Amino acid sequence: MIAGDLLQQFYNLTDTLIVGKFIGSGALAAVGSAYSLMTFLISVFLGLSMGAGVLFSIELGKENMHRLRSAILHAFFLIMAITAVINVLLFLVTDPLLHFLSVPAEIYSYMKAYLIIIFAGLMATSLYNFFACLLRSVGNSVIPLVFLGVSALMNIGLDLLFVPVFQWGIEGAAIATVIAQYVSGIGILLYFLTKCRRFIPKAEERRFDAGVLRDILGLSCMTCVQQSCMNFGILLVQRLVDSFGTITMAAFAAGVKIDTFAYLPVQDFGNAFSIFISQNCGAGKVDRQRKGFRAATLISVIFSVLISLLVVVFAGPLMRIFIRADETAVLASGIRYLHIEGAFYMGIGCLFLLYGFYRGIGRPGISVILTVVSLGTRVVLAYLLAPVIGEAGIWMAVPIGWFLADVIGYGWYFLKKSNWFPCARVM
Question: Which of 168, 221, 349, 417 sees the fewest Cβ atoms within 10 Å?
């Protein structure tokens, strides 16, 4: 799962690297700001798929294949329909979205051109995420990695062809990303249809089942809210960052890419932990859940501390991967970002673990509460501190929000742990 998501990040990372090096900081700022918006939008589809994946894992743990296949069918049509509606709406409200993000006039055209093309790939992204979550929930994490590997390499090759060779500018980077997304989305769909036939609903399972749909909505909607709230916080922070101008925007764009790679392993560890918890929940193995919680916390803390140390020590070289050496103001801003936020990845590592645990036992509402606490703290503090101490106030607000949510999440666990481990009654 970690390797797969690292490859998925190559879509936007490749755009960032090539755009920053071959077009300039203005285009880099546009791609970075678009990345925050797209992360928020994708989190909606991913949250729906992750929530459905919890139900898939529980039914697999119970060995209830009839209900599992019915759930797959209901979840697929629900998520694809939501994706289509959102996609149409996005094309209609592109300009209001850009105004909401306070995009500076000098990069407005860059960002709009990039987004219009990127929006065309949302259906492919949703398709890939659905089948990736499905395959992972039943124990197959290799195939999603294979398709991502192929599409990531294609994205890199097309970026290098479209931007420096064909000189299609920022539109070329977007086109390369969309083509690669459709390769992974359609590819994994065809794999499922040909190689996973035991999970394809039979004729008698293709009927509407209100109970199955209710269970999917109960898990998926809350997980979707949790995921989208988390990324909406980033979007609001992005709006504040945009108000500081192109230098801060470009620094934040590069910093977020480094963040993504730095704490992506613990994010995926939390997602894998959720599958572990939900499968054991369905099988009634309470002791394995308790042992898993302790072991997972220890692993997340150790990994996060080591990654923070590396990011803080090598902040300069990391920023220079994305920023030209002559853009000293952008480099200085980005290094300051990594020294402040990058030092506290332990907070987000533990928070991802808590999200996975509460989702895995069928109580995603608690994950939503933790997300709202983290989101509310970081946004309120960022908007309070930024006018006083500048951009550093934005960077400081984020880890404070992480740690406050951690305190509540672990406190809740230890107060209520005798009641947490049996599956919530959503089945």
Answer: 417
